[in-house]
Amino acid sequence: MKESTSAEALLFEDNRQIKSLKKKKKKGMGSHQSAHMETDIWLTDPKIIHANGVFDLDPCAPAHRPWDMAKVHYCLPQNGLLLPWFGRVWLNPPYGNLIGRWMAKMALHGNGISLIFARTETSFFQNYVWPYASSILFIKGRLHFYTEEGIRAPANGGAPSILIAYGRENVESLGDSGIKGHHQLVNAARVIVVGISPTWKSVVSIVIDRLKGEAALQQVYDIAQLTAPDKCANNNHWKETIRRTLQEEFQRIAKGVYTHKRKPMIEQSSMF
After folding, report:
1. Rounded to the nearest 5°, which phi and psi values hold at 251?
2. Cβ distance 167 to 114 under 8 Å?
3. DSSP secondary structure string, 200-266?
4. 10-54 pLDDT, tens per residue?
5. CA torsion sign, 24 to 26 to 29 to 34?
6. What is the C-alpha separation between 193 and 268, in angstroms, rounded?
7. Residue 121 per-residue DSSP state
8. What is the chain's mean pLDDT, rounded?
9. Where are the beta strands (DSSP E) in 33-188?
10. Predicted TM-score (pTM) of this structure
C-alpha cells in the first residue's frame, strides 16, 4: 500500500512523533533545544533573541515559557508547519526528523532568523540553508539553554550553534546584534526574490529542489500544501494554478513528472 503524503497525514505523523518524544527521557537534542538533560524542551537565551529585535511570530514555541520569543506564538496542539507564517519569524525548530520541513518552510517564507546546530553536512542544510540563507552567524563557543521555568542548564548544548538570516533586514540585525562569532554573507539576493509572498513558480521550484530535482504532480500538490498552506487556502483553484505553472515554467520528463527547465544553449554564429 502506498504511503500517504497528504498534509493531513503529515500532521498526524508530526503529532505522533512529538507525543512519542515526550514519553522518552533523552540525552542530546530533542524538541526545541536540549543541553544533555532529561527533558525535550529547552528555550533560547533571551539575550540572543532580544539582540536581534522584535519578531512577529514563533511558529514552534513551548506553551509554558518564562519569556516571549515573538508577538504571536504557535504552540502544541497547533502545528506551525500547517499554519500560515507572517512577518518576521523567529525559528528555533524541533530537532529531529522533522527539522528539514521547518527549514524548507523558512526558506520559502524568506523573512526571519533561525537558530540551529551547525550541521552543515546534513541534507536539510544543503537543501534549505545554503541555497536560501542571506547570511549565517557562526556563534563563538557553545550556547547554554534554559528550562521552561527560566533556569539556565548547567551543561552547554553539546554542539556549535548558528543563527541564519533570511532577508536583508535580518542580515543587518545579525550584523548589529553584538553576538560574538563570525558573520558570513551567503546569498541575500535570492532570498529577497523569494520574499514574504512567494510566487507559485518559487513554491514549485522549492518542491522540486526538495525532491532531488524532479517531482510528480501529486507530490507537488502535497508539499506545496504543507509549505505554503496560506497561499493554497487563499486560492480556490490552486491545483489548477500549479498545473499551469508546471506546464509553462518547468519541463515534463514523463507523464505527470516535472523538472527544472533546461536553459537553451546559445549557438555561436560564424564570423566568416
Report:
1. -110, 130
2. no
3. HHHHHHHHHHHTTTEEEHHHHHHHHHHH-HHHHHT-TTHHHHHHHHHHHHEEEEETTEEEEPPPPPP
4. 444 444 544 444 444 333 333 444 334 344 577 778 888 989 999
5. positive
6. 31
7. T
8. 76
9. 57-58, 72-73, 89-91, 112-117, 135-139, 161-166, 181-185
10. 0.58
SS3 82: coil
Could you tell me where the DSSP H helices lie in 28-135? 46-50, 99-109, 123-128
Nearest to 72 by CA among 84, 59, 53: 59
DSSP H stretches of helix in 61-167: 99-109, 123-128
DSSP element (H, E) containing 71: none
Sign of CA dihedral 51, 56, 59, 65: positive
For the segment 193-213, the average pLDDT, to the nearest whole number, is 71
Cell of 59: 511558529
Judge whether 33 and 43 are in contact, CB under 8 Å: yes
Contact 112, 88 (CB under 8 A): yes
* Cβ-based neighbours of 74, under 8 Å, separated by 6 or more: 57, 58, 59, 60, 61, 80, 83
d(CA 178, CA 163): 13
Which of helix, strand or coil describes residue 125?
A: helix
